[in-house]
Amino acid sequence: NTDANKRIVMQEVGYQSGYEPSSSDGSSIQKQRDFVAAFFNATLMYPNRFALINWFLLLDTNFNINYGINN
User: Fold this and answer.
1) Would you say 15 and 59 are in contact if contact means Cβ atoms under 8 Å apart?
2) pTM metric for this prediction
3) Could you say which of 16, 34, 45, 60 has the lowest number of CB atoms within 10 Å?
């Protein structure tokens, strides 16, 4: 099995929408939308290369408040 034949696992894919409470990182809902479209267009070019794609959150969250995790 060569590297070219190995399947890809993407354990966590996401893009911050910049929605909550305000965007301090230059992100936006439009940038998130563009990323999602570009990501899926790119993966559809090579459908047999991906064993798993796990989309993580379509919303912004404060991990410290919601999960007790400092990010």
Assistant:
1) no
2) 0.64
3) 45
The torsion angles phi and psi of 10, rounded to 5 degrees, stand at -105, 100
Is the bond preceding residue 21 a cis peptide, omega within 30 degrees? yes
Do 56 and 14 form a contact (C-beta atoms < 8 A)? yes
- Give the integer Cα–Cα distance in Å for 21 and 52: 31
Helix (H) / strand (E) element for 54: namely strand 50-55
Amino acid code (one letter) for 41: N
**CA 15, CA 7: separation in Å to the nearest integer?**
23
Q: What is the pLDDT of residues 8-40, one digit of tens each?
A: 999 888 887 766 555 566 778 788 889 889 999
Cα-Cα-Cα-Cα dihedral sign, residues 23, 27, 33, 35: negative
